[in-house]
């Protein structure tokens, strides 16, 4: 086992690692920190969301495995599949999908990876999953259960929740684009998003990573079935984003070490 610091990022589906925390991951890799991404499912239940993808997909799971490998190479990360089946969003959920697998089974699988990899920091989603996809909610539950189950053999020092999609961030980017006389992709999104539902008030840790937005974008584009390179993901000019919101934002959910909040580094207190 290396003596370097280690980050474990636990995600529900392939592409989540690129849309949540990828620029921070790229920054930490540039600093020599080891990063392992675990995808809990294979994304098999997904559909082609990129209207410009241009070809028929007969085996979504196979395509997304290739996309994930390409994204992992771009971000220079290690990657593991936890091995469970994408639950999708349609009710009723299949009995063998990730959201239906008993927590002691899925939690044990991730706990084994924690014992082996011995991460100092773990990132995942909050109790609401970031958004209410059953696999995202289950990913939160599995991650917290696994950290507890593995603690006798390896105690994770800090656990963080992603808060990439806060209302505060979206409003700031939206208003900056309007101020430049540009159309904003967030107009409809913000209409029904009440200020009291903003997760930004939970943010404790803001990681400066604007220099790695290009790596994040390249990783996102690697998930070609899911992300339209001409779509809303890339509608905000990067020079605006670098000035208006140059961070990725997290909530410190658990720590075994003394911390001083707010933070600007997931590894504060561990370096």
Structural features, described:
By secondary structure, the chain is an alpha/beta fold. It has one domain: LmbE-like (Rossmann fold, 3-Layer(aba) Sandwich), CATH 3.40.50. The protein is 35% helix and 16% strand. The chain has 9 helices and 7 strands, in the order βααβαβαβαβααβααβ. A 7-stranded mixed sheet has the order 3-2-1-4-5-7-6, with helices on both faces. Strand 2, helix 3 and strand 3 (78-84) form a beta-alpha-beta unit. Helix 3 runs antiparallel to helix 8 and helix 4 crosses helix 5. The longest helix is centred in the middle third of the chain and has 17 residues, at 134-150. The chain is globular. The mean pLDDT is 96.
In N-to-C order, the SSE pattern is EHHEHEHEHEHHEHHE
Number of domains: 1
Task: Give me the CATH superfamily.
Answer: LmbE-like
Strand order of the largest sheet: 3-2-1-4-5-7-6
Oligomeric category: single chain
Radius of gyration: 18 Å
And the CATH topology? Answer: Rossmann fold
Query: Which percent range describes the beta-strand content?
Result: 15-25%
Quickly count the helices: 9
Q: Overall pLDDT, averaged?
A: 96
End-to-end Cα distance, whole Å, is 17 Å
Helix content: 25-40%
Provide the CATH top-level class.
Answer: Alpha Beta
* Alpha-beta classification: alpha/beta
Number of strands: 7
